[in-house]
Amino acid sequence: MDALPPENLYPYTVSRPIYSNPTFEEDNERQAREERTLRERLSCTCGSVWTRQALKVVKGVFPVIDWLSRYPIREWLPSDVVSGVSTGLVCSLQGLAYALLVSVAPVYGLYSAFFPILTYFLLGTSRHISVGPFPVTCLMVGSVVLTLAPDDHFLLPGNGTGVNGTEADGIAFLPIQVVMGLLQVGFLVRYLSDPLVGGFTTAAAFHVLISQLKIVLSVPTNNHSGCFSILYTLIDVFTNIRQTNRADLVAGLLTIVIVMAVKEVNSKFRHKIPVPIPIEVIVTVFAAGISYATELESRYGASLVHSIPRGFAPAQPPNTELLWNILGSSFSTAVVGYAVAVSVAKVYAAKHDYTIDGNQELIAFGFSNVFCGCFSGFVASTALSRTAVQESTGGKSQMAGIISAVMVMIVILALGNLLEPLQKSVLAAIVVANLKGMFMQVTEVPTLWRQNRADCFIWLATCLASVVLGLDVGLLAGLVFEMGTVVALSFYNLAKLKFVVHLTFDMQVGFDSVRVFKKRNKALKKIHKLIKKGKLRATEVSLGVDNKGFESEQDSGRESGQVEDGDWPVPEVEVRVDWALELPVRVSVPKVQIHSLVLDFSAVSFLDVVAAKSLRLVIKEFLRIGVNVYIAGCDDEIVRKMEALAFFDEEVTRDLLFLSVHDAILFIKLETANGSMQDAMVEGVRDPEIKCLTAIMLSVIHPRLSAHP
User: Fold this and answer.
1) What confidence tens digit (pLDDT) does each residue in 489-503 have?
2) What tens digit of pLDDT does each residue of 394-403 get?
3) DSSP state, 631?
4) Which residues cross the membrane (predicted)?
5) How distant is the alpha carbon of residue 653 from its chain centre?
6) H or E segment at 212?
7) Reported pTM
8) Which are the contacts of 467, defined by CB distance < 8 A and separation ≥ 6?
9) How far is 301 from 322, CA to CA, in rounded Å?
10) Neighbours of 595 (CB within 10 A)
């Protein structure tokens, strides 16, 4: 061992009495040593390790065990009940309506609105999404249904359209999502870029609109699927337009106008209205009552829902003979359903500061669809409007989902027959009224054209291909076009002799910024509760400087504010904590040993819309835990691209850009020396570091390949 230099040698003195063993034992109590055999020691050590690992695995497979054990009943249950009741009513009506897209009897829509919720409650990781039928996947399943079981083979008695779903429900049994989840291939959804998904869902909205047009008009048409199906359906509609049933047309148009108008009111006054007006429910009840009272079917020939049998269909095994016939369609439906659900789940996870597990979501939706298929249901995902209702009415967890399932069950067991006089044009109109959000994506095209023409072409190509060729082939064509665009851009970038290295933030900085933020919120919440109960006092002098300022006090007289949304504490007096020291509560908060992060963009040659959004989100995630982020070495083209993509805002400003890494480091050191570094969250960190990451992947060839913390 090398000797220490002279300046590191310090004299020290140890003073104590001279001890013999008996004398030492008299002054100090001797601890009896427990003698254990090697087998006992191994058993104890391995047993505790295996127990912890087993518990971790079980919680990973069944996330409900983790969050339900910590469920704050008093704070969350009332909100979840209100949200569950509201969402359950909407879910029931949408289930009935979306069954028309699948070309099956409406009761199968109720089954599909009930069973998937049960399994997702146990296996899902999102607290806010409402699981059930989604128009796009319903239409994709419907095209398979019509291919395998044409209407002229399986007409339902007294019902002009729809097939007996038992023969075509095989698509729900194919556990593609489960297999994908077990293989940990959730990352593949990143190849479905925002422009591609936007173009595809807009095209799907056109397909849904045309498919429901014939029901609103109540004109006879042949069922078409595949290439040019929209054109063929329109030809049939206009050929038989003179056979339009006026009662159905009036009911459908009134429903569309009323539902869309009230939804606009809900959206405009969402901060003033405690619970959104359940307009679908109100319209459906009134329409059913009017139809029953005026005998629309016998007098005007209106097309009614007719039979909605009470109770559940018996469970049955899958029809394995259909599996190979629906393999391709099942895969595309599984991917689309998963992509939409995860996209929506990520939006609300970011809003409420928690994370979701993409692979676990695949497993959750896979088992939900298999379970639902066993009871004659069809594929489930999530509907944007229904999830918005669940979150906006105060839903805090999937407990709201279970309560909504109870509402659907009540409809299935007791109230379904009351809706039998309902006109099918009303259900079709409800479907059409809920397409507004997907149609509004068209307004993104001019913005994409200004920001990134490659993404604009991807949007347009995917939309056009999906409209003309059908949803299955159109999605594949859009994906091929997108990958071709990526290859073309890659060759263009290679021609400029610039290279990109794939790095992830978590691997480089040593911590997960989202996890740090969650843990800090949890600690702050407990600290505020202790302050409110009078068990802890935060002195004015020590706020935000030293955790020693927290004192145990039975009657401090200081109270904190209430907890908003069950997650974020809002105290009357801001309590700023030194996260580097020991906390007065039992929460393991990861240490953040850096105060600044410098991203070297000198090798970056391309930036698109999704990359800019991802990079801005990552920067904000670091800023909120007190880590300043700087970007160095951007050339003028990248800076102009950032401006075109609206990259900068009030938080992410141009001030974070520097000519070189050296300039950024000198600026950070100067700010630190002057004591002006904006670092409220980590004031007490001793000897903080500056991290510099070179050639971040978020900058490059294609952002869908990036790993996001």
Assistant:
1) 766 554 443 433 333
2) 888 889 999 9
3) E
4) 96-123, 130-150, 170-189, 277-294, 322-350, 362-380, 400-419, 457-479
5) 28
6) helix 194-217
7) 0.65
8) 203, 206, 207, 230, 474
9) 37
10) 22
